[in-house]
Amino acid sequence: MSDLLSLYETLKSKKWVNLSHRIDENSPHFPALPALEKKDLFTLKDGFHVQQFSVVGQYGTHIDAPIHFVEGGRWLEEIDLKDLLLPLFVIDKSAAVAENPNYILTKQDILDFEAEHGQILPESFVAFRTDWSKRWPDQDAMRNLDENGVQQSPGWSREALEFLIHERQVKAVGHETFDTDAGIPAAEHGLLNEYYLLEQDIYQVEVLANLNQVPATSALISISFPNWNQATGSPVRALAILP
Q1: Are 114 and 217 spatial neighbours (Cβ–Cβ below 8 Å)?
Q2: Secondary structure of residue 113 in the 3-state scheme
Q3: Catalytic pick from 29, 68, 166, 189?
Q4: Coiled coil: which residue ranges (predicted)?
Q5: Closest CA to 86 of 194, 241, 237, 232
Q6: Taking the CA of residue 113 as centre, how many other CA atoms within 13 Å lie in the half-sphere pointing to its CB?
Q7: Is 189 known to be catalytic?
Q8: Tens digits of per-residue pLDDT, 39-59?
Q9: What is the pLDDT of residues 73-113, one digit of tens each?
Q10: What is the distance between the alpha carbons of residues 145 and 143, in angstroms, rounded to a whole number?
Q11: Which helix (H) or strand (E) element contains residue 189?
């Protein structure tokens, strides 16, 4: 058996977890963007079934390329294929978020994670687990607005992103919410951390699902999407292969 076939048999024997939400016309999404539209162009009465989909790139579980926020940043097709299959590290702060929906992941949280699980490897994918995905498919629960219309949701701190990108040399990060930034600072200052992240020429995956089914370390994440030309983002099928 060849090395690749042997590797295939090993991977097939592992548990695989779907990290993407199923999307349709009613899926939660950033309110400034239109919902997915789907219609039949032909049905089986015509001899074959063909559907037409109209959907923005940043819909459901999706990938953001640097060009999404940064002038001159890489388009999706410019992300190296090998950067779409990465070691996966999952930092679980779901208990803290259950107590405080505005929780912001810090550098100290990462250091505490490494003290327990070992150092995050270079060229990895780091996911911030909040269990926010359990709110899906409720748009109001995903946004979690207060009486003033401010989103109450968790996010990354700048220091955490700086540490992961420059000291741990990660390839990408991901989270379960709509945004990189927590809701309150985003309302006050805009999506500064999302801009910073993409400015560092790495990508992110937003609105991840089922991170509660993935161990802290030793899994792999695989991310796939259509081979768009000059796309700033795209819905993805992300999956984890467990050890």
Answers
A1: no
A2: helix
A3: 68
A4: none
A5: 241
A6: 23
A7: no
A8: 999 999 999 999 999 999 999
A9: 999 999 999 999 999 999 999 999 999 999 999 999 999 99
A10: 6
A11: helix 183-189
Structural tokens at position 71: 């002038």
Percentage with pLDDT > 90 across the chain: 99
HSE-CB at 12 with a 13 A cutoff on CA atoms is: 6
185-211 tens-digit pLDDT: 999 999 999 999 999 999 999 999 999
Asked if residue 201 lies in contact with residue 44, where contact means CB atoms within 8 angstroms, the answer is: no
Q: What does the block give as tokens for 193?
A: 């951390």
Q: Two tokens at 99?
A: 């107590």
Strands (E), the chain: 16-18, 37-42, 50-54, 62-64, 85-92, 104-105, 125-129, 155-156, 172-175, 203-206, 219-224, 233-235, 237-241
- The mean pLDDT of the chain is 98
